[in-house]
Amino acid sequence: VMDEELSQSVKALCKKQQCTLFMFLLAAFQCLLHRYSGQTDIIVGCPISGRIDLKTENLIGMFVNTLPLRTDLSGNPTFLETLNRVRRTALDAYENQHAPFQKVVETLRPERTRGYLPLFQVMFALQNASTQDLELPGLEVQPFPVDKQTSMTDISLTLWDRPQSLSGWLEYDTALFHEKTIERLLHHFQILLASIVADPGRRISDLRLMDENEWN
Predict the structure, then answer these.
(1) What is the pLDDT of residues 128-174, one digit of tens each?
(2) CA–CA separation, 28 vs 204, rounded Å?
(3) What is the rounded distance in angstroms from the CA atom of residue 157 to the CA atom of residue 172?
(4) Model-level pTM?
(5) Residue 166 in contact with residue 128, Cβ under 8 Å?
(6) What pairs with residue 171 in β-bridges?
(7) What is Dmax (Cα atoms) for the chain?
């Protein structure tokens, strides 16, 4: 659970920059991946509802598609420049969200490696759907937790947009990462967000990741 003050500051900056919360958090997450990996070509898979036809709104079923969103972080841009790159990429992807992910893979024919998803190994999702109980005539409905036991990707960050603060979890491949590493990554993500809020015009290499204890 993120600090309430930080969460509200992030939302206020989104409003000021006229971008969605999803675009802002994705840009920040990709900056974090860049700082951790040193890579400048960052591709993150993002689920999208897939209900682009009004006729599907009342249908029960799985319509989710996955969009691989690619951001070029070369040239050490400022965060605001990075945000603009993410915004353009996301809007272009939305225009083509009807293309099934599997069809994109078949068309691009990337080199396949057993045990890895093609095109990306990291996912990000922002959930903002209503959390009210589902009510159906003549039925009693309750959520059923599913323990998958396996991770589809190396890292998958899911955040929930709550009225008071952002919250979420990070699913990861335990063969690649220790629990302490993931805890530290999430801690660094919040420090990065605070650094962005304080000065979104800073170069991404200058944005702070570590707290005072780590510096010392």
Answers:
(1) 876 667 788 898 888 787 777 788 899 999 999 988 899 999 999 99
(2) 9
(3) 9
(4) 0.89
(5) no
(6) 156
(7) 61
